[in-house]
Amino acid sequence: MPSLQTRARVHVTTISDRCELAPGVVLLGLHAPDLGKAARPGQFLMAIPPSGAAAAVALGIYEARADRASILFFVCGKRTSELSTLRVGDTLACSGPLGNGFDLSANPRDVAIVAGGAGIASALLPAEALIAAGARVRLYYGARTQALLVDAQRFADAGCELHAATDDGSAGRRGYITELLEQAQDRPDMVLACGPTPMLRAVADVARRFGIRAQLSLEETFACGVGGCWGCVVPLTAESAQAPNFPREDRGGSDVVFARVCKEGPVFWADELRW
Amino acid sequence: MGQETVDLSVQLGSLTLAYPTLMGSGCYGSGQEFAPFVDLSRIGGIVLKSVTRQPRLGNPTPRLVHTPSGMLNAIGLQNPGIDFYLEHDVATFADRPCTMIGSVAGFSIDDYAYVCERLAARREIAAVELNISCPNVASEGETFACDPRLTARVVGAARATTDKPLIVKLSPNVTDIAAIARQAQDAGADALAVVNTVRGMAIDVQTWQPRLGNVTGGLSGPAIRPIALLAVYEVARAVTIPIVGQGGIESVSDALEFFLAGASAIGIGTANFIDPRIPERIVDGLAAYLRQRNLHSIREIVGRANVGFANAHQYEGDED
Question: Is B61 close to A229, i.e. CB distance below 8 A?
């Protein structure tokens, strides 16, 4: 996955619009001269809490246009809680765009995007890019309940075929979204996924059974978010093109190397992970 | 008035830093990772991630937990080993616009001496920090910094390998840090980094599992700032060599406390994870503070905390 990190910098953005998509789910539009232009599908940014009271928060870039990007997040702690209090006109500094995004270079023609909960934040940019390239895109969207299937219409409007599942059956199928994927009559040629780790593992299993490749956008606790601290690593086969520069000979008899989710990732090929 | 130039340069042994700010080892990669977000020419130097004799995969995951007012980490010294490091990494440090300080970790006195000698021989490396206080490697890592005699032996062995400035990083997880500081000084350290992380742990109450793959970790961030500040204060009264004060520094006010307690320079680690612009803000803030008080150099405030107890101590000394 091509390195895109040279475009990154600190962007001091202004909140251009704010929408509470569901209770505790916030979409913030960020006015920034060139953050949107620089962002690629699957990249993230580190949002710097204005109070400076806690570490920066890694958030997927939801939308990206010339002078506007957006973040979509679930309030789940004190840092996202602080971000949720921002209003139109407030300032939010962000480092980014960061990480290596989805690799769409193989020009897949029929793609399933699996998004779980807050993972939807990283699903829109690849969906739009694929549709623009003429691909068929199916969104498999899972959430706890109907109200948390946020912004689904946006994906339908963009041209995605929608498949939904909820834990409580209030919308779509009751159960896991990966069960719906598994029942697909016509198999896609590639899967992209973003969501909680158990869902990503299930996606990897389904893709293996389908005999197709999957790209997973991993969720991990970050400290620096830029590759400096080696805190967010994941085991990867040393043969991966994404394996960091590390000695190949003596690895304790193992062919596994730890790659940084924030730097080499956050998107990895499922069949190269050794987790 | 007001725009008068102030001198922020400091001296660590024979090493001159243009600014008194060092980026803490393990927090800042090799600097390149942060280059898009910060003007590296406006920080004093980068203490590189520790390197060991053999490659190390590091600890199992998870390696990080955010905690109230700080974070726990247990990275486990993941590094490619000194051979690979010298061949692939060190040459890339030559074009960095700030001072590059190597960091050495090990599991025996021989390890430290061997890696220190090879690293210090490279012209890209201006000084070497001995990380004798990593709390996250099974048993041996922190042993050296917790034992005055082992501290003396490991520092002495490293000292014998190089004339480059040697900074020894001390552990806060000890009863008498001043005694260990004196041993490091007497064995030839040029400066002391005070302190490394404080040991800690966190448990997930849903799964009953420790939240770090390594079970225990090192706590950093503002949670440890008063602990670190006291350590700097105690060490400053015990030694004459300069101190790099570090532990939860996030603002110019935090930094000033450490200078006043006796630090000649400061280390910034976890604060970079809040906002990569913090080191530059601290440099600007220090300059403004000095100008406001008609001071010319940061060196004028080192160890100037006005402590009654210290005066009493001095008085007792005079009576002897």
Answer: no
Handedness of CA B78, B125, A263, A239 (dihedral sign): negative
Per the structure block, which two tokens stand in for B278? 């913090």
Q: Is B134 a catalytic residue?
A: yes
Nearest to B36 among A9, A230, A254 (CB): A9
Whole-model pTM: value is 0.93
Question: What confidence score (pLDDT) does residue B1 get?
Answer: 43
The closest of A265, A149, A135, A107 to A200, measured between CA atoms, is A265
- What's A9-98's CATH class? mainly beta
Residues A210-229 have pLDDT tens digits of 999 999 999 999 999 999 99
Nearest residue, CB atoms, A232 vs list B27, B64, B88:
B64
Question: Which of B73, B78, B276 has the CB atom closest to A223's CB atom?
Answer: B73
| Nearest Cα to Cα of residue A132 among A170, A161, A168, A159 | A159
Q: Which residues of B touch A (CB under 8 A)?
A: 26-29, 33-34, 36-37, 49, 54-55, 57-58, 61-66, 71, 73, 75, 78, 80-81, 83-84, 88, 250, 270, 272-277
Q: What would the two tokens of residue B284 be?
A: 């600007």
Helix axis angle for B278-292 and B252-261, nearest 10°, is 60
- Here the CATH number for the domain that contains residue B74 is 3.20.20.70
Q: In total, how many domains does chain B have?
A: 1
Q: Sign (positive/negative) of CA torsion A194, A199, A203, A205?
A: positive
CA distance B72 to B202: 8
Would you call A177 exposed, middle or buried from its count of C-beta atoms within 10 A (0-12, 13-18, 19+)? buried
Query: What are residue A164's phi and psi, to 5 degrees?
Result: -125, 150
Q: What residues does each domain of chain A span?
A: 9-98, 110-219, 221-264
Per-residue pLDDT band for A248 (boundaries 50, 70, 90) equals: low
Distance (Å, whole) CA B227 – CA B236:
14
Chain A CB contacts of B80 under 8 Å are 245-247
How far apart CA B193 and CA B226 sit, in angstroms, is: 16
**Per-residue pLDDT tens for A144-163?**
999 999 999 999 999 999 99
ipTM over 0.95: no
A110-219: CATH topology: Rossmann fold (3.40.50)
Q: Do B270 and A223 touch (CB under 8 A)?
A: yes
For residue B57, what are the domain limits? 3-319
Pairing status of strand A136-143 against strand A110-116: parallel
B193-213: average pLDDT: 97
Nearest Cα to A44, choosing from A108, A118, A113? A118
The Cα of B38 is separated from the nearest Cα of chain A by a number of Å equal to 8
Give how far the C-alpha of residue B131 lies from the chain's centroid of Cα atoms, to the nearest Å. Answer: 9
Query: 3-state DSSP call for residue B287?
Result: helix
pLDDT one-digit tens code per residue, B227-276:
999 999 999 999 999 999 999 999 999 999 999 999 999 999 999 999 99
Q: What is the pLDDT of residues B143-154, one digit of tens each?
A: 799 999 999 999
Q: Is the pLDDT of residue B317 over 60?
A: no
Over residues B293-312, the mean pLDDT reads 85
* Cβ <8 Å between B84 and A230: no
